[in-house]
Each structure stands twice: as C-alpha cells, then as structure tokens.
Amino acid sequence: MSDENLGSVQYGRPSQVPFGSLTGGAPQQHQVRHRQLNNPAGTAASAAAAAGVPAASSSRPRATSDYGSIRASALHQARLRIESDVDCVSYAPDVTVEGTERQRLVDNSGEWYFESQHAVSGEELLSAKFESLDYDTCENSLWAAEDQSRTVWDLRRIELCRWLVHLLIGVVTGAIAFFIDVCIEQLAKVKYRYMKSMLDRCIFHDCLIYALLLWIAFNFIFVLIASCLTVFGEPVAAGSGIPQIKCFLNGIQVPRVVRLRTLVCKVLGVLFSVVGGLAVGKEGPMIHSGSVVGAGLSQGRAASFKFDLGIFEYFRTDAEKRDFVSGGAAAGVAAAFGAPVGGVLFALEEGASFWNQGLTWRIFFSSMTSSFTLAFLLGFYRGIPNDLSNPGLISFGKFDKLDYDLLHLAIFACMGVVGGLSGALFNTLNEHLTKFRHRYVTSKLGQLTEAVLVASITAVTSFVLIYTVRSCQPLGSDQMEYPVQMYCPDGKFSSMAALLFQTPEAAVRSLLHDPVGTYSVTGLIAFCLPYLLIATWTYGVMVPSGLFIPSLLIGAAWGRGVGIGLNLLFPTHFTDPGKFALIGAAAQLGGIVRMTISLSVILIEATGNVLFGLPIMVVLMVAKWVGDYFGTGIYDMHIELASVPLLPWEPPSRSAAVSAQAVMSSPVTCLYRQERVSRIVEILRAEPHNGFPVVSGDLGPGTFGTFEGLVTRNQLICLLDMRLFDDGDPNFHLANPVSLSDFRRVYPRFPSVRQLQLSEADLMKSVDLGRYMNPAPYMVLHTCSLARIFRLFRGLGLRHLVVIDHRNQVVGLVTRKDLARFRATHTGDLKELQFTG
Amino acid sequence: MSDENLGSVQYGRPSQVPFGSLTGGAPQQHQVRHRQLNNPAGTAASAAAAAGVPAASSSRPRATSDYGSIRASALHQARLRIESDVDCVSYAPDVTVEGTERQRLVDNSGEWYFESQHAVSGEELLSAKFESLDYDTCENSLWAAEDQSRTVWDLRRIELCRWLVHLLIGVVTGAIAFFIDVCIEQLAKVKYRYMKSMLDRCIFHDCLIYALLLWIAFNFIFVLIASCLTVFGEPVAAGSGIPQIKCFLNGIQVPRVVRLRTLVCKVLGVLFSVVGGLAVGKEGPMIHSGSVVGAGLSQGRAASFKFDLGIFEYFRTDAEKRDFVSGGAAAGVAAAFGAPVGGVLFALEEGASFWNQGLTWRIFFSSMTSSFTLAFLLGFYRGIPNDLSNPGLISFGKFDKLDYDLLHLAIFACMGVVGGLSGALFNTLNEHLTKFRHRYVTSKLGQLTEAVLVASITAVTSFVLIYTVRSCQPLGSDQMEYPVQMYCPDGKFSSMAALLFQTPEAAVRSLLHDPVGTYSVTGLIAFCLPYLLIATWTYGVMVPSGLFIPSLLIGAAWGRGVGIGLNLLFPTHFTDPGKFALIGAAAQLGGIVRMTISLSVILIEATGNVLFGLPIMVVLMVAKWVGDYFGTGIYDMHIELASVPLLPWEPPSRSAAVSAQAVMSSPVTCLYRQERVSRIVEILRAEPHNGFPVVSGDLGPGTFGTFEGLVTRNQLICLLDMRLFDDGDPNFHLANPVSLSDFRRVYPRFPSVRQLQLSEADLMKSVDLGRYMNPAPYMVLHTCSLARIFRLFRGLGLRHLVVIDHRNQVVGLVTRKDLARFRATHTGDLKELQFTG
Q: Which residue has the higher pLDDT, A18 or B447?
C-alpha cells in the first residue's frame, strides 16, 4: 500500500485491538491492565515521547497474570464464533483482573522450585520466570554471508567436529560412569565389610544396638556429604535431573542445569547418597551428567570455572547445543543401563521434536561409545581387559530362558494394572510430600536435616526388617559379597539382608535370579511396603538421587511375590518367579515414570532378550494407562510443581477454534529498521521481553506497523556493545565488518543492558537493524488456530512467532508461555492456566 | 482492506514480478515463457475473457522445464546480492529456454519408472508427474466445528480405533509373513527333494545334465509365475518396494503402491521368486506388504476390489494414512527380521520427519504384535505352541560368544571399507543395468524373458559352482535338510551346495555358524564373485525381490573368507570365522543400502546380542562413508533414476542466500473468496495444479491479491460435486449443512473436473470459498531463505506454501517440486535439476 499516512501513526494503543474489519466481525475489545514493571518503564516511555520518538507500547503484558481477563474472553469468543457460526460477534469480556502481585517466595534452590503460593493454594500455575531457548536459526544477512563464504572443506570440518564432539561425549560419559561405579563399589565394600563384621560379632555378644548405631553413623556421614554438596554446592544437582533435562530439551532454560559445577556436585553427590544407603540409584543422575558433558564439550569451555578453549565456536547456538545435550543424555542412558538404543530413544522421546537422520546417527554413536568405554574400563579394572560384558552400570544379569504364553501375557497385564496403581500411589504421596517440603523445608539447614533424617530412618528400618523377618537362604545361591547370617543356621544367611545389606542394584539382581524358595511371600510384603514409603520420601530430598533402581526393586519384590504365589498354586506351569519379578519391576517403574518406548527398549536391552519385548511392552502400556487415569508421571508431576511452561507433544484437544488472537500477547513493542540507540536502550531497560518485531511505519488502527523482521534482545545488546551505529551510512558495514562469530563469542551469557557503556553521543546515533534482524521469521495470520501455532512451535522449536493481520501488520506476538497455558482438562475441554509473577 | 477497486484488478501479468520496492532494490525481471498445456488452457482463458471473467493467469509454469531460465538467474542473483552486499542489484537473466517438449516414453509400469530420455542422456532430471501428499491439516471452519463438537468420548473412541488398527496391522502383517514363510518352506522342500534325489542318482549314472535341466526347469517355471504376477498383475509390485515406501512416507504419491492388488501380487510373487532360486530375499517385500496392510486396514476399504467397510472414516486423510503406513512398514520389518525396535527406527529413519511420542508408541505396538503373531503362528505350525523363539523370517541363529577387542575393532573397520567399496561396485553395476533395462527391456514380453533368463542362468551358475568347487564338509555339522554329496566321500557333502542348494537365508546361517574348516577360501571367492554379479543383475528384474538376503550372503561369504585367513595366520587369536562372516554381511549390506541406525538395530536384534552393537555400528558407519564417496545407496539411486522429487533430511548447503523469490513458482492462479462456478470449472480444467490461494481484490503491481487462505483442487471438486452454490446467501450453509465427513468420503479418489455434471444454471452461480478454505495456511515472506522454507516443508509435511510480500499480497507459491530441484553438488555448491514434462 502506501507510506503516506506515516504521520498519523498511533503508537501505544494497548487497550484496543480491533479485528472486526479483518474477520468480518465487529470490534472486540481486549481490556488489558497496565502493570508497573520493576524497571522504570513509565519513565522511559515518557522520556521517549518527550524526545519525539514513538514510544511504542511501554508495557506488553506477555506472560503476566494480566492474561486472566484476556484469556477467559478469548476462549469464550472462540466458542461463540463457532456456535453462532456467524462471524459478526460483538462481545465485551468481563474485566476482572485478578490479584496479580502474589508474594513471591522463591526458595534457595532458585529458579527450579515452584513458588510457595502454588503449594499453598494447590491450583495449577505457570511461572513466568523461565526463559525459553531459541532453536530457530536467525537467518539474517550475516548468516547468509557466512553460509555463502563456506567452502566444502569448511562444511566437512564442521561435520567432522560434530562427530568428534559426539565421540568425546561418549568417552567422557562412559568414564564418568566408570568412576561412579568404581567409587561406589569401593566405598560400599568398606561400609558393608565393617558392618558385617560388627553384626556377626554382635549376634554373639548381644550388642546389636551398636551395629545399628554404626549403620546409622555410616549413612549419616555419607548422606551429609551428599547433601552438603547439593545444598551448598549446586541445588539444581538434587534429584535425578531428568525433569530438568526434559525441560532443557523441550526448550526451557533451566538456570545452571548444564554447568560443570552442577556436574561435579551431581557425580560426587550421587556416590555418597548411594553409599549412604538411601533408596536411590545412580542411573538418573548419569543422564543428567551426560547432558552436562554434552553441553560443556560442545561449547569448548566451562563458564563455572572461567575456562575457554576457544574451539567449536560454531556450536555456540541454542540449537546446536541442544543436539549435543541430546547426545549426552543418550550417552548417559547408555552407560547407566547398557542400553545404547534405549538411550537414543530416550533422547528422542524426551527431547527432539524434529527427527533428523544425521543427528540420530550421531546420538547413537555417542551412546555406543559411552557403553563401550564403560565396558572397556570395567574390563581393565576387573583384570579381564577384553571382556566387554558390562556395558552398563546396572545389569539384570543373564536370563537363561524367558518364555511365555498367552496365559502369562494375561497375568502380566494384570501385574501392569497393579504397577499402575502402585505407581500412582507413589506419585501422589510424593506430590504431597513435595508440596509440604517446599512449604516448610526451605532453609539450607532444614534441607540438610531432612536428608540425614531420611538416611538414619532408612538404616533403622533396614535393621528392623533384617532383625524381625527371619527367612533364610542357603549360602552360594547368590553372589552376595557380604552375606549376613543373623539368626539363620550355619550355611545359610538372611534373605532379607540380601535385599537391604547391599546396593539396590545388587538386590534387584538377587530378586530376578535367586532360585525358587529363597524368599517368602510374607518377607517380600514386609520389605515392599516400608521400602515404598521410604523411596517416596527419599525422592525430592536434597541429594542427587535416581528413581529407577528403587522403583525396580519395589516392583521386583512384589513381582517375585506374585511369582511365588503362582508357583505354589500351579507348580508345573509357573516355575520361574524371577520372570515375574522382572515384569513386576517393569510394571512398577512404568507406573511411576510413565515413559513408553524408550523404557521398553531400555528394559529389553538390560535383560538382553529381544523376545521378551512384547510382555515388557504390554506391561508398560497397561501400567501407563492405569497410572495416567490418576495423574501424570513423576517427572511431569515435578515439572508441573515447578510451574514450568513445558509444551506437550500435541496441541490440547478443542484447540481448533481458538485463534491466534486469543493466544497472542498484545500490544507488542516494535522497532524500526533504522532505530535510534536511545530508544533501543530505553526499550531494553523497560521491557523484559526477548523478541521485538521490526516494522516499517505503514500503520493501521490497533496494529503496530508493517512486519519486516524480528530482532532479539541478545542481538540488540551485541549491536550496542559493538557500537555498530551506522547513522544511516550505507557503507558503514564495509568499514566495520562484523560476522556471526562476534555474536557467538558472547553466547550464552550476553551482558545486561545496564552493563553497556554508552556515551551521550552514542545514544543520539542510530542502528540499521535490517542487517541483523531475521528478515523472514515464521509468522501466522491472526486467523490461525491454536492447534496450528502449537504444531509450528513444537515442530520447529520456536521462541517467538509474530502474528500479522491481512495487511501484514504486526498485531501480536506468541511465545512459549502463551501456548503453554492452554491445557486440556480431563473432560477434553480447554482450560487456561494462570501465570505467577 | 476494502473491495472497492475490484474492477481495476489486473490478473494475468505473468512476465513481471518486481520486488524492488520491497527489498529496497531495483526491479528484477523474471521472464517466464508461456507453455501450452495439454488441457485447452488457452481456449478456456480466452473464453473466460470473453465472458468477462478475470481469466487469472492461464498458465503457471510450476514445475515445468521453463524453470531453466528462472533458476539460473535466481541463483546468480542470490550470489550477486551477497557478494555485493548491497540490495540494489539490477540483473536481467538470459532467457534461454531449453527444449522442453521431450519425447515421453513411459514404460508400462507406469508412473514409477523414469523416462527414457533420462536414461539416454544420463543427466539428472526430476519428473513433474509425481503428485505430492498433503500432511498438513486444512483448518477450515468445518474442521473447527468438528473439533468443537467432539466430546471426550469421541476423542477416546478415535484413539482406541487408532490402537485397534495398529493391532490389526501387526496381526495381519505377522500372518502374511507366516504365510510366506510356510509356503516357501513347503515349495522349497518339494523342489530340493526332487533335485537331490536326481543329483544323487545322476552322480552314479552320469546323467548330471538332466539334473541341471530339471533345476533350470524348476527355476524357469517358478520365476515365470512370479514375473507374470508382476508384469501383468501389478508392475509396481516389482523389486523390494522399499524405495516406493520411502517416497510415500516422504510425501510423494506413487500411484497404486498401497493397493490390495499390489499386496496380492507382491506376496505371491515373492514366494515364487524365492523358490525359483533367484538371488533374492523375502524381507524387503515384507516391508512393502506391511505398508499396504497399514494403508488398507486404516481406510477400512480396498479400492482395487470396490470393497468398503465404511469404518475408520476419520482416518481418511493423507496425514492419518501416513501414520498407519509407517506402522505397517515397521510391522513388516519386525516380521521380516524379528526386529521390532529396528522396525520402529526404520519407519522413523525413512519416513516420519516429525517425531511424535504417541505415534511412535503405536508403531512400536504394531511391530511387537507383528513379531509376536509370526512367532506364535510358527510355534503352532511346528508343533511347539508356546515356543516364541522365531519372531522373524530371518534369524541369524544363536551366537554363543561374540567377544571382540580393539584389534578386532580395527579389522572390522577395514572390512567396513571393503563393504563400502563392494557395495559401491554393486550399486554402480546395477545403475548401468537399470538404465540399460529401461531403455531396451520395455515390453512385457521382454521383461518376462529377462526374468526367466536370470532364473536359468542362476541355476546354471549354481550347478557349475557345485560341480567344479569340490570342497567337502562332514555331515551333521550343518542342519541342512538336503545335503548333496556330489563327488565328496561318504559321510561328507559338498560345502558349495550348502550355499547354493538351499534358500539364501539358510545359506547365511551356514556361513555364520558352520565350524572352522568347513569352507575353503578359494571356494568362498569362487562363490562370491559370480553371486555378486547375479545379484546385481537380479535386482530390478520384474519380480518382487528383496535385497537384504543376497547382500548378507555375499558379505558373509567374503567375511568368512577374511575370518579363515586370519585364523590361518593367527590361530590363537582369531578362532571364530563366523564372527567375521557376520561383520562381512553387515559391511556388504551397509555398503549397498546405506541405512544407518535402523540397520544397526535390525542387525543387533537379529543377532540377539546387544554387546556386539558397537562393532556392527562401526562397520556400517565406515561402509556408508566409503560408499557415499562413490554415490548414493541403492534405494536412493533407484529413486533418482525414477526422477522422484524426494526431499532429503536437510536443506542443501549454500541455500541460505537463495530467497523464496528464486524458489517459488509465479504467476499464481488465485481465486476470490466469493467465486463464480464457471471460473472455478475453467481454472480446474485449464490448470493441473492442486493448490489455489484465495485472495481479496486489493492488488499491487505484479502480485496476485491480498492473501486470505488456500483452497485445494480436491476441495473445489467436492464443493462443485455437492453443489454448495450459496450465491452470497449467508444462511445457505444452515440449509445445506456439510461436514468434513462429506469430503473424507470421497478420499482419496476425487472425481476429475470432467466427471462433474453441472448445468448452465449452475455455472452462473457462485461459491463462498471462505468457509472451506484453509484460513491460515503456513506462509512465508518473499525474503525467506530456501533453507527455512525447506525446514518448514520437511518438518510439517506441507504440499503448498504461499509466498507473500510485505503487504501480504500473494507473489508466489512453493511446492515440493520447487524445493526438490535444489541439490548440493559434491563441492558443496547448489545446483538445480531440470524437470521433465
């Protein structure tokens, strides 16, 4: 159209966004409440206005709780439009602005943990403080120039570097797994040797109370170390790390989650928490560790230790980093379970939305290398250098025969139901505990106290169980290193001690492979229930802790109970209770974590039996269905409790009728192609947002300019920092050549706008954003449906999506948070979550 | 925004597309040559003009060879713009239109095979005659209404149906695999029993020539049947079907590839071609068969047999169908190799670009069910009902010990190099043969003759090899059913006959497991070379034929040769030649097909040994790298020979600087929101295209209207067929309610425009396209780069992408063919392929 009405442009009209003329309907009013930012927004805006610069909208309530009112109206409108089937809807929404300035009480682990408000009210909220990662390439002119200047050898070098980094990721992750394994083995040896000699002595000298005290002391000290590392070292290292990695791969910036410091605390912490006798495994933390390795190696530096190799500079973008983190996560799974294929599938299931053949192949390479490195090192360590039979930290041991028929399959499905129920129970208990914990256990001291309390109680419970449940098994039926005789006759030892007096991994193997008659049903029940409760309590304590092993142990225990029961009833048909222990373990784990294909493959690989895949899959499927009826899996539950705006796989149901208008944030702060430095600085100071559409002046009513491109906060900061002030000189960039490398060098820690040193003269200059902006980012028409926006976002890993009207004028901006608040209810309806401050 | 200047709209300005004012540069002229379509375009256009209807552009040279001139200029311009770094480029391209009207000589297998021109000139071409599939949802008002009207029970029912269909796919595919296996076993038993008794007799009576004749006769008859089924039954059933399925999953409509008729011909054909002694396997065809099962079951009907159950109507869209075809392909792999996880990865590697957790889980379910069904049925058939140890058609047998050390790994990598070279040789020979075949063997009779010739020569070669290579092995070392003594002493039998006198699957197992000393190195070499040549010749003959088994057999033979050699040199270190046979098999197969992760997993699952994964992966990786140096894998090679516009995984290198302007087709035929029936009919008759942007009248120079939405040919045909002529009446649709079901009912065989029965009165009416068009399809700015468009297309499975300018006016349309013609050269540069007519 024309530029003639440039003078009459109306900026800063945040209160009215009429689309009537576009959709054929009457104007709909979205009343948006202005919100005072911490930054001096109002000041900046008025200053800008005084300076004659169009101030744009000085507040854009993206992802603030102001949405409450817009949202309700948006959904309502959408429904109205469909029901009436006539486009002319005139609808004025209720303007009920909810109390937005909720008291924030962030605990000392910082960004990850949810706010107290949430735990108190129990309502579902989303936190606005998580930033997103941007997996989309900014295809500006610098990028095009770089792409064009690259020779085929450059391309090959980059490709080679990718493979090299993936190789290194595999090797380092495998080495870390080896380190953890050997340390735990040695420390556990010391602990259980002392304990055993004490116990054996005390049975005769009646000093069992001292044995108990020694046990408590061991647990106390080890767990105290683990907890100190977590609480004082790096709080984000607590737990399994899988939820955090899941969020990272989903595109959410969880602060400090892939730092070297986190890795160190995680690795050392998990050592001590496992040796400390807690109901935890070392597998989940391996996945997190692998991811950190992936992130660190690919960037060629460790920010925690101010250490920069200066290599692999090309990989310093969110998208490249994500690929390597995927590889690291896969390598972690591979090393943890000896399941390289499972690792690849885990990385894909949890992370990558866009399947890429080359990437998958490299991830597989990382996984394989990781497994191989672990097996190789363990072979050397154990003095059989060419024995590569230990590709994972956990092994279910070798099953001679895992046959089944249709009757078995039916029983397995029933066990899946039990696993689903028991998993849901676990999750529900843990959810309440977590809420309680984040309300009352917020101080560092409190967290330490809880950790050592759990450690002590675990020791006491174990001791009491071994003391009271007196089932015995003959020596030699198990490869246990320190069998405890307790009150058993000579030549036999306590079978309860076989479960509690060794690391949980070894206990799982015992349940899977010990011969018929080793355990009694009552003994297994007596073990199962307290252990379930302790494991529930343990997950969430401030120590690095994996959930796989305790889940498998609980499941294997009741599964073996089922097997023993069936063996008693039909001794000819059901001969092997170990098979049922395996299925029970799968059912329990599936009921808790609700992973699907990757867990199936991990278990198939860990059992080393392809033919037993179908039963495992059926059990996991049933457990997931049953469990999902009661709530989400534990990882998703913790993500929800942390109020993270995670995007699920599919758009919520009934999202077809919700249009971009209802989803987007508006008003939008826009910049001009040739923009004054002072205005950029003001906007950056006033606004917390990360993406700014670049527009030209041809405005219509209620829009924010003709869409030309998108520029991000980081780019603007870099431009200002490099003083690329061309003042409209077309030859400026020839004299001041910049390349993408200059931007990547600062990644990912761009300076804040307050750190920039700009003189008064600088502020009066102007920048040509056209050279640096993304000239053709993805965009949608305002008529676009939520479902479509969702698929675009999820499929391509976007951070910003510009919404335009039929004249290509910017009318809104969609971010991850705008999308994440739409969820499907149990009844298939659409609901909208609130944002906390 | 307004429609007032509707009268002054200028349609049909195909020769000038100026963007100067938008990009800040001077206008660039794209001179586009008009091309006479087979349809009476000119007539229609002039008739329309006479009737006062804006004729639009009567020719839009999308995907025609007219691109030659645009293309060259586009790339050149892009480079110019980057090099000069100034936007003001004025560049007039050479208008050299190449000879476009090439003589088309499509052979009688129809659409799949490439044109003779191509084979003759050897240049790379793309065929314009392949239609694309549309995996994007058309989110029109009908869709929104349907989505809104659906209860949570509807959603659950659909989900349940999905699972049900995937279960059925698994069961039916497994049953088909069982049928093939049993038939081949029985037929092979008859053949080899007769042959053996004849041979045993003739050794004494010196009538070996009759034995040879009998062998030839057997092969001749069986292969004749297979070939007749293919040539007369369904030509697209020839070959392995993997390239065709790969294309289908990529989004290309390969005609008749998922029909029931194809399935029948494929299944029966593969039986006879395997029993006919050809160097073929039954595994590739299983993948194709599974895909047909997936497509057929999900649609609830078989078009070949005019049979419609009327169920699963919701699944009648391209996107849903693709999901089920993926499941079918995975089930096929699972049944063929007993590799359910490999099946899932195959479906993902070859097909799905968007990874979806739910879908993957269902695909896995199909795979598992398929393996289980096959194992279950085979167990029953063999009289051991609960033995589920045969989950696949091929099994590599049980390896007792597959240990390796770093030295082994190095040797394996070298074998990977050999596999890559030998695979490249195979592919090059096959490429030349295929070109020759499609030039000279085009008649049905010729194809039949070739098939039986190959069969006879295979018999003669086998016979000569058994006759001349006289290495013997003791009886009982192999589980061969019909050992042939030939000139061996009593108690021994010919080891060459162990390779040639049974089905290739059994021969592979012999090479993997026979004890040391069974085969001689000379014997293996004598076997390897002729068999390689025969296998090369066989792949492409008009019979259903799998490539996996012959490749594995060749590789296992030379691999075992390597193993024997090493065993002779270092008898203590390399004790097991079977291990090297396995690696050789992997190397050869990898060198030929170049699949990566799925092949690794398939082989890991087929060997049943997770620990041996790393060597297999290393070998496949090396073989792929070496092979890729000489050319593509055999499936991609056949796809290229067929000139199919397949989209690779990643955009070609150096595509950053190519803008949408250079990629898109222009001019574009646009429709108005309220459009006259006569004009729609004329456009549909005159144009072969499938997508038409819907615009409003607010035009700028060189553009085609303000973009409002996109309507497809099929939708238009349905609208016309249903006579939804509202003539501007806003209440029309209330009186004439339609739903998406009405559109799905006709899917996928929409009537042609000529089949519509429209009266003169009908033609004068008008249609409101607004209700049926997609109101917010994906679109890009004309400044968007090729790389970005590519990712959008590939990631979301699009068929059309509208290109708009900065005023949201349509300036072009991008289709798959526009993208597929851009390829990277060996030097990393961008090249553009030509389209054939």
A: B447
Q: Are A541 and A397 a contacting pair, CB within 8 Å?
A: no
Report the residue of B22, B85, B164 to disrupt the A interface, i.e. the one with the largest count of A CBs within 10 Å: B85
φ, ψ of residue B608 to 5 degrees: the values are: 70, 20
Proportion of chain B in helix, strand, coil states, percent, rounded to 5: 55, 10, 35
Return the amino acid letter for B449. T
DSSP letters of A669-722? --EESEEEHHHHHHHHHH---SEEEEEES---TT---EEEEEEEHHHHHHHHHH
Q: A163-382: which CATH topology? A: Clc chloride channel (1.10.3080)
Q: Which helix (H) or strand (E) holds B692?
A: strand B691-696
User: Which residue in A389, A357, A49, A109 sits closest to B403, CA to CA?
Assistant: A389
Q: What class is the B406-642 domain?
A: mainly alpha
Whether A406-642 and A163-382 are alike in CATH topology: the answer is: yes
Give me the residues paired with residue B138 across strands. Answer: none
Contacts for A748-756: CB closer than 8 Å, 24+ residues apart: A748/A316, A748/A318, A748/A321, A749/A303, A750/A713, A750/A714, A750/A717, A750/A718, A751/A717, A751/A721, A752/A717, A753/A681, A753/A684, A753/A685, A753/A717, A753/A720, A754/A685, A756/A681, A756/A717, A756/A720, A756/A721
Whether B139 and A696 lie within 8 Å, measured CB to CB = no
| Nearest neighbour of B354 by CB, restricted to A388, A785, A795 | A795
Q: Which region among A344-348, A833-837, B133-137 has the lowest average model confidence (pLDDT)?
A: A833-837
Q: Is the ipTM of this complex over 0.95?
A: no
Q: CB B388 to CB A404 under 8 A?
A: yes
Of A11, A26, A30, A124, the closest CA to residue A664 belongs to: A30
Q: Does domain B655-835 correspond to CATH entry 3.10.580.10?
A: yes
Percent of chain B residues topping a pLDDT of 70: 82
Among partner residues A352, A796, A806, which is closest to B791 by beta-carbon distance? A796
Q: Residue A126 in contact with residue A835, Cβ under 8 Å?
A: yes
pLDDT one-digit tens code per residue, B694-744? 998 766 677 888 999 999 998 999 989 888 888 878 888 888 888 888 888
Q: What is the mean pLDDT of chain A?
A: 80
Residues A1, A698 contacting (CB under 8 angstroms)? yes
- For B582: left if phi > 0, alpha if psi spans -120 to 50, otherwise beta; the answer is alpha
Contact residues for B272 (Cβ-Cβ < 8 A; gap 6+): B187, B222, B223, B225, B226, B229, B543
Q: Is the pLDDT of residue A432 over 90?
A: yes
Which of B135, B138, B326, B341 should one mutate to test binding to chain A, selecting the residue with the greatest count of A CBs within 10 A?
B341
- Apex CA A507: angle with CA A503 and CA A508, to 5°? 120
User: Which chain A residues are closer than 8 Å to B796 by Cβ?
Assistant: 791-792, 795
pLDDT score at B543: 94
Of B391, B785, B792, the CB nearest to A144: B785
**C-alpha to C-alpha distance for A414 and A409, rounded to whole angstroms:** 9
Q: Rounded distance, CA B135 to CA B130, Å? A: 16
Residue ranges of domains in chain A: 163-382, 406-642, 655-835
Which chain B residues contact residue A155 at CB under 8 A? Answer: 653, 828
Q: How confident is the model at residue A422 (pLDDT cuts 50, 70, 90)?
A: very high
| pLDDT at B692 (0 to 100) | 93
Give the minimum alpha-carbon distance from B769 to chain A in angstroms, rounded to a whole number.
14
Q: Which of B82, B357, B807 sits opposite A649 (nearest CB)?
A: B357
DSSP A802-823: EEE-TTSBEEEEEEHHHHHTEE
Q: Which of A39-53, A644-658, A753-767, B576-590 is least confident? A: A39-53
- B832 Cα to chain A: minimum distance (Å): 16
